[in-house]
Write a sequence for this structure.
């Protein structure tokens, strides 16, 4: 997936671009967007795995300041993206709790009312 002539820094920049695009799309949820994000994040993960495999100890660009900064920016962007997804997940759980909830379990998790459809799928 990584072109041979592409440097480690260029690969990091591609991954960062993917993460930023997903991050900008997060406020527009929907099943189509979720599928697209899954594909894009999978592509970013594959690029990082290939980069890790292609870097040998002798060629490691760790001492390259631009490369280190690019990796740190990827980490910061990924952390912000993770927080956005967690916030969205918690928001959805809160909506479900308001609509279908009966309270909270001993562990603090929402307890949802059983529905007929739930019984047929899990039954």
């Amino acid at each position: 997936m990584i072109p041979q002539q592409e440097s480690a820094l260029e690969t990091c920049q591609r991954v960062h671009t993917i993460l930023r695009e997903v991050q900008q799309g997060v406020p527009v949820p929907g099943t189509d967007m979720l599928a697209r994000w899954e594909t894009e994040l999978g592509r970013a993960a594959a690029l990082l795995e290939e980069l890790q495999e292609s870097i040998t100890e002798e060629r490691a660009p760790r001492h390259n300041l631009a490369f280190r900064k690019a990796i740190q920016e990827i980490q910061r962007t990924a952390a912000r993206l993770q927080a956005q997804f967690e916030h969205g997940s918690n928001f959805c759980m809160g909506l479900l709790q308001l609509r279908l909830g009966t309270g909270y379990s001993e562990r603090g998790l929402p307890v949802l009312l059983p529905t007929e459809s739930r019984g047929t799928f899990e039954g």
Q: What stands out?
A: The chain has four helices and two strands.
